[in-house]
Design brief:
- The chain is built from 10 helices and 13 strands.
- It is of the alpha/beta class.
- The protein has a single domain, classed as 3-Layer(aba) Sandwich (UDP-N-acetylmuramoyl-L-alanine:D-glutamate ligase).
- The chain has a 9-stranded mixed beta sheet, with helices on both faces.
Length: about 350
């Protein structure tokens, strides 16, 4: 069983009929909204949809949005919300996901109860029976980001003490918020020694280090090595429609995996579903790194075919059957430089 802990929110996703300009003072007509759970809980829901045993550890408020979260999770499985705790007096986190066709998604976000999540919310007893702990979205969890990494490190150390492996995902940092004042390099140095798999996006980690985003192969390798030197045995960078690049410290090998082509309805949650695919293939099915990255990319591609974050993810056998057929890929990163031989 895999435990997914950390940030959870309710996603409110308006349906756009086509490209839209969001200018001040304008009215943009949209269709019916889709409601789904969001945050790192996307990884847990995607794991469930793939058929992987999962337990969620999150916090919500005693409000209407909290009730909606329980209804959504309960509709998938009566057990899926068993580890989600309702905290009286707190509000449930929510995001309004603005994703017109042809435009990268934007988020209007309220952190809610995630701001008070800390190591006390991941009790030792809750880890029983699990083999892996995945934690996510420190930059939008106040107690997790504001203590120099102590709480997150404590969670990872507790998991290791219980015999679990660990993984960590990131998210964008709001430069205008308190999280924007955090020394994220120092934070990562405190936490990553207790992380086995670190799987952020290129944009997120570049933002954290204050370096330009570059898809040039050698630049990506330098970034992978910089992260690996902080402790994790495996680092995977999500590159959007350019796929994945990863460093396996046990072999010293760099692996790349392009994206599979799909008719994209929304990229919201695709990175989380990619992680769910990797964890399923690598930890549960014991596949090779190459096979696991391919399955991860395929799972993320399936997620893009639905408007919500996880609705496009099918059972793992369906993903594998689709991979065994003719499924074209988009161009990915390579060692070859522009203009090179």
């Amino acid at each position: 069983m895999i435990i997914v802990a950390g940030h959870l929110c309710l996603d409110v996703i308006p349906a756009f009929a086509g490209p839209a300009r969001l200018d001040p003072g304008s009215l943009v007509r949209v269709g019916a909204a889709t409601f789904s759970t969001g945050g790192v809980s996307n990884v847990g829901v995607a794991l469930h949809r793939l058929g992987t045993p999962v337990k969620l550890i999150h916090k919500i408020g005693d409000d209407l949005f909290g009730q909606a979260v329980r209804l959504l999770l309960g509709a998938m499985s009566t057990q899926l919300a068993s580890g989600v705790r309702t905290v009286p007096g707190e509000t449930t986190s929510y995001s309004i996901v603005v994703a017109p066709p042809g435009v990268d998604r934007m988020f209007i976000h309220s952190p809610g109860a995630n701001d008070t999540f800390d190591e006390q919310d991941v009790e030792q007893g809750a880890l029983a029976g699990a083999s892996h702990l995945h934690f996510g979205y420190p930059p939008i969890m106040r107690r997790i980001y504001s203590d120099g990494g102590a709480s997150c490190r404590a969670i990872m150390d507790r998991a290791h003490a219980a015999g679990l492996t660990t993984s960590l995902d990131f998210c964008s940092v709001d430069a205008s918020s308190d999280a924007g004042q955090v020394d994220w390099t120092r934070w990562l140095k405190a936490v990553l020694p207790a992380v086995d798999f670190f799987m952020p996006s290129l944009e997120e980690v570049s933002q954290s280090f204050g370096v330009p985003v570059s898809f040039e192969y050698e630049s990506l390798v330098r970034l992978l090595n910089r992260l690996a030197e902080m402790g994790p045995s495996f680092v995977m960078l999500k590159l959007g429609d350019r796929g994945l690049i990863a460093l396996d410290r046990s072999t010293g090998r760099i692996h790349t995996q392009p994206c599979f082509k799909v008719n994209v309805k929304s990229a919201n949650g695709s990175g989380d579903c990619t992680i769910a695919g990797f964890l399923t293939a690598r930890l549960l099915k014991r596949r090779s790194v190459e096979e696991s990255l391919a399955f991860a990319s395929a799972t993320g591609a399936c997620a893009c075919e639905a408007a919500d974050a996880t609705g496009g993810v099918p059972q793992s056998e369906v993903v594998e059957n689709r991979m065994s057929g003719e499924w074209d890929c988009l161009p990915g990163v390579s060692r070859r430089q522009p203009g090179g031989a």
